[in-house]
Each structure stands twice: as C-alpha cells, then as structure tokens.
Amino acid sequence: MKVVLVNGSPKAKGCTYTALCEVASALEKNGIETEILHVGTEAIRGCMGCGTCKKLDGKCVYNDSVNVFIEKAKTADGFIFGSPVHYASASGALTSFLDRAFYAGKSDLEYKPGAVVVSCRRGGASAAFDQLNKYFTISNMPIVSSQYWNQVHGNTPEEVKQDLEGMQTMRTLGNNMAWLLKAIDAGKKAGIDMPEKEVKVSTNFIR
User: Fold this and answer.
1) How many CA atoms lie within 13 A of 184 on its CB side?
2) d(CA 10, CA 40)
3) What predicted TM-score, i.e. pTM, was given to this entire model?
4) 166-202, pLDDT tens digit by residue?
C-alpha cells in the first residue's frame, strides 16, 4: 500500500515538509510506502473550467504536476495534502493544484482516505484546515483524523520540531491512516464491495 503526500509550500524543505515527514515516518513504520510530491515551488495555473479534461481521459489540459499527481493517484491508496497558512487559507499554489486535480482526476481519488496537514506561525490554521477538508467531502473520500486538528506551529523547521504536541499529532495521523488503509484492505479481501453509486442528480436553484 502507498500514500502520496503533497507539499504545497513554496519552501520545499520548510515547516510543512517537516510535518509531512513526521507523518510519512509513522506510515513507513506501519509498512506503508510513501512518496512526497513537491508542488508549492511551481507556478501552478488555476482551473479554467474548460472541461477539456473530460475529453482527455481525466488529464488536465495544462500539463504540469497536476497530471503527474493524477497518474500517481491511479495506484495510490491514500493521500495527505500539506500547506502553510497564508492569510488563514491554504497556499495559492496548493489551492490551484487541488481545484484542478479534483476536477480532472476525481475518479482516481474517490473512496480512498485523505487527510490534510497545515503549518502556521501563530494563527489561521483551523480556517485553512476546514478549507482543505472540503475537497474530500465532495469526493466520497474518508477523512483521516488525529488526536487534534492536524496542525503544527513554528516559523522554522526547528521550531516546528519543538511543537511536541503538533509532532505527536502528525505521528498519530500517520498511524491512523495506516490502520484505516489496512482495515479497507481487509474488507476488500473479505468480499466487502465499495458502495454502489447512484446516477448523480444536479439541482439548480435558478430556472
């Protein structure tokens, strides 16, 4: 089993990366393979809503790290998205990345566990955390929780490591993700099928 961790920070080896590494370490101790994909250092275009991805078998018309992720998602079992807190929100790069990844590649994400990790100096973490979890709740994805909201505090990687509760929250998140992945795998082996999807009904409020 494998979990893809996405780093949405413009600092590839900064505070968000430090938190993701702690989660990845816990996953690997549980026998789960991990890969960290850095996307925050790129200039990522936002979704144009052009719908071309529907004609390209789930690939975005802009060929960048979004398509790299969508391809990895086909064989991944779970996902963790990490972001620094910018103005009480996720980074612009990660927001653009997720808008396109979930619009184009949703079918490769559905029914796979997801989680988010946010890193802040002082405040705004819970608002960014709420924003990012909404991608899961519109995509039939189980959300993996921890002993507290998945956040770390610090202005440098060294300060993040001093946030002992935050780092413990990251390890607990990794352990919980590993447990859920193994439980899902055991269910599949026991013959438990995924839920049968109904044909989607769309209701517009203006007619």
Assistant:
1) 17
2) 4
3) 0.96
4) 999 999 999 999 999 999 999 999 999 989 999 999 8
